[in-house]
Design a protein that fits this description.
It is built from 16 helices and 11 strands. With 362 residues, the chain is an alpha/beta fold. The longest helix has 16 residues. The chain binds magnesium ion (MG) and zinc ion.
């Protein structure tokens, strides 16, 4: 990392830290980590790394920070530019997964491998109506294991879910030709999403996938945990606030890697995709699937919700890409004139279905 720049007097540092509640919490995280230089016999023994504006502050101290007094015996402070130094301006597309990239709900597709009488049992129905979706799915996975449904069969079922028409092409085009960073924020789970992306050669297109972590345990039972626990956001489920995830990602990219997003596209279909788009800026785009809950909710409550982002309504991946390519905001050097333009037009008219029936929301 290109280090070097400034030295900062201790009082200035303490004043700075006192103004940064986030930095204070990171002191707890980092104050116990001894710097490598200690081993080399250097005077300072403790190191903090705190992102501040465009820099990562490296603070070397002789003792850990005393949190009650704020006192720190600081030996050196240097500010190193995060990442590559020069600020990068990029575009971000954040995708929901179920009914956005894939044409079905991964959880309900796997649930339907159970016999009907089990799915409609009172115990399962009660769990479904409870707050936490991951608890419901954990019980489904337990029952599948009890029914001796093998891991390989579950993976097969996931791989066979068709894409929403045009989404494989859309993702590859945004990633390879339009220089987008791509992420997924989904209430499905990491096993299903990884399996499907791998089967469609899309794993490398995504910079990050935020979902409920899952794995097959040593007995072959699929275990899933909530992505996080939250009660702050009433628009979102307790196990996943997609708005919080999106905000954190954008801030982290800025602080750690000096990457700023000129435009953020959020692409979704369900009610749990409302929270992230309400946090978007006027320069961003809320992309809602036509005929699905997200679109209905946004249009019905447009004035009340005060959506700042521009609304794009899409029917499939082909017409979404066509709409994106037509945006004046995306006319730049990275946009290539490509034969795909004609192809998109042709396939969009062939592939666009009428508004589908309302799906289960996920
Ligand atoms: Mg969805
Ligand atoms: Zn939320």
């Amino acid at each position: 990392m290109p280090e070097a720049s400034n030295r900062m007097a201790t009082p200035t540092l303490i004043k700075l830290l006192s103004k940064l509640p986030k930095a204070k919490s990171e002191i707890h995280t980092y104050s116990e980590s001894r710097s490598k230089s200690q081993a080399a016999g250097a005077a300072h023994q403790w190191a903090l790394k705190i992102p501040f504006k465009r820099h990562l502050l490296h603070i070397h101290m002789q003792k850990p920070v005393n949190m009650s007094t704020g006192a720190a015996a600081v030996s050196t402070v240097s500010a190193a530019s995060c990442g590559l130094g020069k600020q990068q301006r990029r575009r971000l597309a954040a995708f929901d997964f179920d009914h956005t990239i894939v044409s079905q709900n991964t959880d309900t597709v796997v649930r339907d491998m159970l016999p009907n009488e089990l799915i409609s049992s009172k115990a399962l129905t009660d769990l479904m109506e409870s707050e936490c979706w991951t608890e419901y799915m954990a019980e489904i996975f337990r029952l599948l294991h009890a029914q001796q449904v093998q891991e390989s069969r579950i993976r097969d079922v996931i791989r066979c879910i068709p894409e929403v028409p045009g989404f494989v092409r859309l993702i590859k085009h945004l990633h390879k030709r339009l220089n987008f960073d791509l992420i997924i924020i989904s209430d499905s789970n990491s096993v299903f999403i990884d399996e499907w992306l791998r089967a469609h050669n899309l794993s490398d297109c995504f910079k990050a996938i935020f979902t409920n972590p899952a794995h097959f345990d040593e007995h072959g039972q699929l275990q899933v945990r909530p992505h996080h626990q939250q009660t702050d956001c009433k628009l979102s489920a307790s196990n996943l606030c997609k708005g919080r995830v999106l905000e954190h990602f954008v801030i982290e990219q800025d602080l750690r890697f000096n990457i700023r997003y000129d435009h953020v596209f959020y692409v979704g279909d369900g009610n749990n995709d409302i929270c992230p788009v309400l946090r978007q800026r006027a320069c961003d785009f809320a992309c809602a699937r036509q005929g699905f809950a997200m679109e209905r909710h946004l249009i019905k409550n447009r004035n009340k919700l005060k959506l700042r982002a521009q609304l794009l309504i899409w029917r499939n991946g082909f017409d979404l890409l066509e709409q994106m390519c037509a945006l004046p905001q995306l006319q730049g050097q990275s946009i290539e004139s490509h034969p795909l333009e004609t192809e998109i037009g042709r396939r969009a008219s062939a592939a666009a279905p009428a508004a589908p029936p309302a799906p289960p929301e996920q």
